[in-house]
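forwarding from the other thread:

> can someone predict this with DQA?

sure thing
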Amino acid sequence: MITIVPLFVDDTETFQSAFEEAVHSRCDWIELRLDRALNDLDPFRLLEILAVLDPGDKRLLYTIRTDREGGEISLTDTEYKELVRHLCRLNGLVDVELSRLDHEEPLASFSNPEQTVLSFHDFDQTPADLDVIWHAMETHHPLVQKLAIMPRDKQDVDRLLESCRQHRTESRKIAIAMGEQGTVSRLWGDAWDSFAAFCTLSQSSAPGQLSLEEWLVKRTGKNGPSDGTNC
Ligand SMILES: O=C1C[C@@](O)(C(=O)O)C[C@@H](O)[C@@H]1O
C-alpha cells in the first residue's frame, strides 16, 4: 500500500514547514487540502502558492473537499468545475467529487480522467448501494476510484471492503471506513485491493486516520518505508 499525507494549505510559514516535513517524510503522496484556504484566499493567489511548491519525489494530490462531502467550503458546480480546470494544469493529481458529475458535464469535460482521483464520501453512514457507487465511478474511467464511508458496525466495514474487492476496474481503488471501527481498511486495505492509506503527519483530515509513524510501525514492524507500490 502507499501512504498519503493530508495537509491544509494556507499562505503561512507554518504550512511551508509542514510541507517541507511531508516532502522529507516516508509518505508516498501529499494531499493538499484547498477547501479551508479557499474561504480566505483569492483562488488565483492559492494557485500561485501551489505552482511554486517543490514536492521532490512525492506525488501531489489537490483536493477541494466541499461541504456536501464533509469538507469546509460551499461552491456552486460552476465554481467547483472552474477550479478543477485550473488545478488540472498543475503538476499533480486532482480529487473530483462524484456528486459534481452529471450526464451533461461528465468528468472529461472539466478534468483529465488520467489525472483524477474520483471520490465519494459519506461521513454519517454506509450507503446500502455501494456497488452502484463503484459503477457510477467506473463510467468515467478515472485513474483512481475512492469510496469513504462511516461504518456503524463491523458488518459495514466488511461490506465496504468486500465491495472494493469485487469491483472489477482498470482504475486503482481506495476503500476507507472512517472512525475507529474502520482501522482495518486503513492498515490492511490492500488485502481487498485498496491501494492507499491516508495517514496524518501534523494534521488529521478525517476520523480514524493513523499517524504515518504508527502506520509504518504496524505495517512493517519497524519504522521503514511503505512498500512503495506507487502509482
Ligand atoms: O478522501 C479523503 C479520505 C479522507 O476522508 C479519509 O478518510 O482519510 C481524508 C481526506 O483528506 C481525503 O480527501
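The radius of gyration is 17 Å. thats all i got for now
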